[in-house]
Amino acid sequence: MHNQPLIDQLYRQQSRRVLATLIRLLGDFDLAEDAMQEAFVAAVQQWPTEGMPDDPAVWLIRVGQRRCIDQIRRRRTSRHYAHLVMPEEAFEWAAFEWQDPSIEDDQLRLLFICCHPSLAMADRIALTLREMGGLTTEQVSSALLQKPATLAQRIVRAKRKIRDAGIPYEVPDATALPERLPGVLWVIYLIFNEGYSRSDGESVVDVSLAAEAIRLAEALARLLPSGEAFGLLALMLLYDARREARQDAEGELIPLEEQDRNRWDRARIRDGLAWLERALALSPTGPYTLQASIAAVHAQAPSAEATDWARIVVLYEALYRQQPSPIIALNRAVAVAMRDSPAAGLSLLDALASHKQIVNYHLFHAARADLLRRAGDYTAAR
Amino acid sequence: MKYVALVYYQESLINAMSEQAWHDLNQECVAGVERLSAHGHYLAGQALQPVDTATTVRKRNGETLIADGPFAETKEQLAGFYLLDAHDLNEALQLAGRIPPARFGTIEVRPVRELPPRDNPGPTYY
């Protein structure tokens, strides 16, 4: 029996769960990674002759744990692992019990430690893709357009800080969770944007990063059901549905209103709407859910003209109350222009022009020129 | 683990405070220390005199160089420190967040580095 394809499949499906649990059991990222690799090597050697164990993930965790004992013995002289060196009897690890809830918690622990606010944002993104997403250092570096050496350094630095600063491997408790969850969502959204808004290279959209972010959000929505996790997932699915329609053959971005809506991914939209429905069932409605609601109005409109702009204005107003940023005010002004008239939008834009932040924002000028053009003022539009 | 929480704030904010506000802030800090002590988190700490009382000392080529002022001019000044005992960084951050100047200044939380044990002095020859 040839098990290699099965083992490859298992690696894709289970390696993150195996790793997450090994990190908890061994208390060290690097030891856990080595242990996991060794466990998979052992699987490749043993399973073809001895057969696949009943519960492969448990087998992998147990073997990884056992192999780690050798790792620790080998590294005993290393200063970095001095804290793990313990008397012989301590090597009698408690028999690992397979309990689904604890395994699921390990996945969440891994996500929360990768997204810990005491790590630099770039390090959080790199670590999340590497450890939680299971990408190799090379894959992460090419996805983020960073040199592999720089990326490897980030990962090393982040792991060192986790160890030296005592960042715990834990899901924040109920009191700290509301403070910490937005940070995790933000990292996932930044990963998505990194893939979605990239304007260099062959294609505007790096499929893998957007897909990676959606996978992370799906995992989070499953592990820690919350309105904003659902909302973020809905938002990313609804944006991603426009992927094929977002750029022309030359790779130039096509504005939403000019996109060929037949090229929008209907299955993605259905998924996005379903998650949005779940998000809206929970209160309070947070900013990701509001943005997803706006994306949903667009996704359901047959054309830019036939869009429910009145609803979009209301949603932007709700969003502005939560996040009073000039960018959101800009979007609201454009929606007002669509609902009422270009002139109505322009007067809102002119009121915004005193914001330093907005005047430096290229979309402000693009939006203003566009509304002037629609209002028929071609001289000012230039 | 042991963490040091370094308290920074703009002294100008303090100078602009009323007597009563300054008194209340100090009382709040005293109560905070009592609470930390009661939970076994407080190992040591001290508030500092304003930064214009600072003097720096350097030793270069055997020469002692003394100068007035702090090591670096910063927007916020070091105002005090706490030595805390916390289970991990999350707990340390939670404790630091309750230090009253966190509301208008900045608390920097750093794990302590234990110095290595003293080298074995080796045999002594007479």
Describe the structure.
The complex is a heterodimer of chains A (382) and B (126). With 382 residues, chain A is mostly helical. In chain A, 67% of the residues lie in helices and 0% in strands. Chain A starts with a helix and ends with a helix. With 126 residues, chain B is of the alpha+beta class. Chain B is built from 3 helices and 6 strands. Chain B has a 4-stranded antiparallel sheet with strand order 2-5-1-6. Chain B has a two-stranded antiparallel ribbon with strand order 3-4. The longest helix of chain B has 20 residues, at 19-38. Classes of the chains: A mainly alpha (382), B alpha+beta (126).
Which structural class best describes the helix and strand composition of chain A?
Answer: mainly alpha
Question: Which fold name corresponds to the CATH topology of chain B?
Answer: Alpha-Beta Plaits
- Averaged pLDDT of chain B: 94
Low-confidence blocks of residues of chain B:
none
Helix proportion range of chain A: 55-70%
Distance linking N and C termini of chain A: 71 Å
Biggest chain-to-chain interface with counts: A-B, 9 and 13 residues
Q: What general form of chain A does the structure show?
A: elongated
- What's the tally of helices of chain B? 3
Compute the separation of the termini of chain B in Å: 43 Å
